[in-house]
């Protein structure tokens, strides 16, 4: 991923800056710190050969927007052919896996991630490139639907524009990019997008984002209706709980889990094992229940930044602890089988 072909052998400064951002995201650093490195990488990548040569000759990297002393130091070390000290330290820290799981190598892809099209922090192409580096065969781009305006949810027009970008990025990537959406489950159980549009997608993750404290019967009926929708592939973060993190905590919503999971089993909808540390959704007892009831699963990151795509390790460890067989996890399947199932 070296964006400056005239640089010396070894990782170039753009690659180094983006890798530092990856490790910071994986370690759940503040978004402000991470974005400083990503903005600097973008500014450096935008330079033409002449501009790069002039800055290098004058050693004036701090003249670039957002480049301070520490980022300039990374650039200088990378240009000298070294692995920058900051990157080397982060690599050493990242050598320790987030979780121990023998299941992780079985996963072929991730069915839930976000880009700058909605509330993600990085462009689609960068998410796909990171998925490639992590060894994914496929990645579903599942930005939010219109109702979630606070997360810049996509109108039908914007969603169709995103499909054009997916087609462009696909021409240069070995990762199969799946057209997807995280669609809101509306109050009456309908999905927040027209049937015709949902039918043109590869993957539909249906999630509740509003009225999470609704009554038990209301919430159960709402979720079952969404699961019964013929376009739904995955039931996303089913309880909506938050157990830690900057957004604070939130209790799980109340619904009849046996009824909802039985609907998932009957309609072939995968229960998402959401790998985000602040979600860990479903809770352990519900994950065990869904397993006992014979549900399918999808282990997803719900990544909003490239470094978070490595959170799959966390979801795999939870699935393995419950004893879920890889064959029941739909993102262990080859893409052709996955797509056939999604279009059932």
Short synopsis of the structure:
By secondary structure, the protein is α/β, with parallel strands linked by helices. Helix content is 41%, strand content 9%.
Give a topology summary.
Blueprint: H1 13-26, H2 31-45, H3 49-58, H4 69-79, H5 85-94, E1 109-110, H6 124-133, E2 138-141, H7 156-170, E3 176-184, H8 195-198, E4 203-207, H9 216-228, E5 234-235, H10 257-267, E6 270-274, H11 284-292, E7 297-300, H12 312-322, H13 335-342
Could you explain how this protein is built, in words?
The chain is α/β, with parallel strands linked by helices. The protein has 2 domains: 13-94, Orthogonal Bundle (DNA polymerase, domain 1), CATH 1.10.150.110; 104-342, TIM Barrel, CATH 3.20.20.140. The chain has 13 helices and 7 strands. The protein has helices spanning 13-26, 31-45, 49-58, 69-79, 85-94, 124-133, 156-170, 195-198, 216-228, 257-267, 284-292, 312-322, 335-342; strands spanning 109-110, 138-141, 176-184, 203-207, 234-235, 270-274, 297-300. It has a 7-stranded parallel β-sheet with strand order 1-2-3-4-5-6-7. Helix 1 runs antiparallel to helix 2 (31-45). It is elongated, with a radius of gyration of 21 Å.
């Amino acid at each position: 991923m070296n964006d400056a072909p005239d640089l010396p052998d070894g990782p170039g400064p753009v690659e180094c800056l983006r890798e530092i951002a990856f490790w910071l995201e994986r370690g759940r650093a503040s978004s402000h710190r991470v974005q400083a490195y990503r903005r600097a990488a973008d500014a450096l990548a935008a330079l033409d050969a002449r501009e790069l040569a002039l800055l290098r000759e004058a050693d004036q990297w701090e003249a670039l927007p957002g480049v301070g002393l520490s980022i300039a130091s990374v650039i200088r070390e990378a240009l000298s052919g070294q692995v920058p000290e900051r990157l080397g330290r982060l690599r050493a820290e990242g050598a320790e896996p987030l979780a121990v799981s023998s299941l992780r190598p079985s996963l072929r892809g991730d069915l839930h991630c976000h880009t700058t099209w909605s509330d993600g922090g990085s462009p689609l192409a960068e998410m796909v490139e990171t998925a490639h580096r992590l060894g994914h065969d496929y990645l579903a781009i599942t930005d939010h639907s219109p109702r979630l305006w606070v997360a810049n949810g996509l109108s039908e027009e914007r969603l169709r524009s995103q499909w054009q970008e997916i087609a462009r990025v696909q021409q240069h990537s070995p990762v199969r990019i799946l057209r997807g959406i995280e669609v809101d489950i509306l109050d009456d159980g309908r999905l927040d997008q027209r049937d015709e549009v949902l039918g043109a997608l590869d993957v539909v993750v249906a999630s509740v984002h509003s009225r999470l404290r609704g009554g038990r019967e209301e919430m159960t009926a709402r979720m079952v209706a969404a699961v019964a929708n013929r376009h739904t592939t995955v039931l996303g973060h089913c309880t909506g709980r938050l157990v830690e993190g900057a957004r604070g905590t939130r209790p799980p919503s109340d619904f009849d889990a046996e009824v909802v999971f039985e609907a998932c089993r009957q309609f072939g909808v995968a229960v998402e094992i959401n790998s985000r540390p602040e979600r860990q959704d479903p809770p352990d007892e519900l994950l065990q229940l869904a397993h006992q009831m014979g549900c399918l699963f999808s282990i997803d990151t719900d990544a909003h930044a490239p470094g978070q795509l490595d959170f799959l390790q966390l979801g795999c460890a939870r699935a393995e602890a419950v004893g879920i067989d890889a064959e029941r996890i739909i993102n262990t399947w080859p893409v052709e089988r996955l797509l056939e199932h999604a279009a059932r």
